[in-house]
Amino acid sequence: MTLTIEQLRKLPKVSLHDHLDGGLRPQTVIDHCNETGHSVPTKDADALGKWFFNAADSGNLVTYLSTFNYTIGAMQTYEHLQRVAYEFVLDQAADGVIYAEARWAPEQHTQAGLSESQAVEAVRDGIEKGVAEITAAGGDIAVNQILTSMRHLAPTTRIAELAVKYRDQGVCGFDIAGAEDGFRPARFKEAFDYLRANNAWITIHAGEADGIPSIWEAVQVCGAHRIGHGVRLIEDIDGDKLGRLSEYIRNQRIALEVCPTSNLQTGVAKTLAEHPVNRFRELGF
């Protein structure tokens, strides 16, 4: 049976790996950059949408990540962050999502004078506004935030502390994101130790551009409860035989936030047919 796009949209879904600054509406980017003076490749919304699509489809993680320069530039004030978070909720609901987590890095949104706490509160307020609107219209959605530190910046505990501070205001966890090569998870061990001491939830980007050692470090050194992507864990599996790490991850029920289309765009996998997501499912991950 083949489902149409509309049928797929109506299916209830959970979205655990979604970057708030990676899904802005093109017109929102244009509106916000016009107000702040940030440049954009084009001021035509349709053309900008195509530009983002083509850049994301480059097959290179570094090029893929460069697109965030424009979206982050459009998320530097309270009003802009609130609008982006609000629209995020509406767009998730339109795709049939009933639970979503929006991850983003507060430290990248202080260029116009906001503190990191104020940025978190702006996103919180936008999410609450969007959820209230969907609920009032008879819909059903819950949305939380995951606060992220950028792994290529100097290690800090600030964002981890914010994740604990706002845990009762819609922040459900902490992550590190950005370029993996050369920036292993253990650089942020102090932050992860703080989170574990405070019984906070941890997800870590690992096993995407970097390989098995990054996944091992995320789990065994940093205490990850989930792994962002983790697609290269397949390198620890030979047919039906699991290696020590993959067996541990499966048996401990450490979730893999597998993102097949993203992996195609960044060149981690060549085709959907070659992507290991179904193999992971068959093996019980």
List keywords for this structure.
45% helix, alpha/beta, three-stranded parallel sheet, four-stranded parallel sheet, TIM Barrel, globular, 285 residues
Description:
There is one protein chain. This protein is an alpha/beta fold and 285 residues long. It has 2 domains: 14-144, Metal-dependent hydrolases (TIM Barrel, Alpha-Beta Barrel), CATH 3.20.20.140; 151-162 and 174-285, TIM Barrel (Alpha-Beta Barrel). It has 13 helices and 9 strands. It has helices at residues 5-10, 26-36, 45-56, 61-66, 68-73, 78-94, 116-136, 158-165, 189-197, 212-221, 244-251, 260-266, 277-282; strands at residues 13-19, 97-104, 142-150, 171-177, 203-206, 226-229, 237-238, 241-242, 255-257. The strands form 3 sheets. The chain has a 4-stranded parallel beta sheet with strand order 1-2-3-4. A 3-stranded parallel beta sheet has the order 5-6-9, with helices on one face. A two-stranded antiparallel sheet has the order 7-8. Helix 6 (78-94) packs parallel to helix 7 and helix 8 (158-165) packs parallel to helix 9. The model has no long low-confidence stretch (mean pLDDT 95).
Please tell me the overall pLDDT. Answer: 95
Q: Describe the strand arrangement of the main beta sheet, using strand numbers.
A: 1-2-3-4
Q: Which runs of at least 5 residues are low in confidence (pLDDT < 50)? A: none
H/I helix tally:
13
Architecture per CATH nomenclature, i.e. the level-2 architecture of the largest domain:
Alpha-Beta Barrel
Q: What is the CATH class designation of the largest domain?
A: Alpha Beta
Span between termini:
25 Å
How many domain units?
Answer: 2
Query: What percent of residues adopt helix (DSSP H or I)?
Result: 40-55%
Shape descriptor: globular
Radius of gyration: 19 Å
CATH topology term of the largest domain: TIM Barrel
Largest sheet: 4 strands, parallel
Number of strands: 9
Fourth-level CATH superfamily of the largest domain: Metal-dependent hydrolases
Which class of secondary structure composition applies to the elements?
alpha/beta
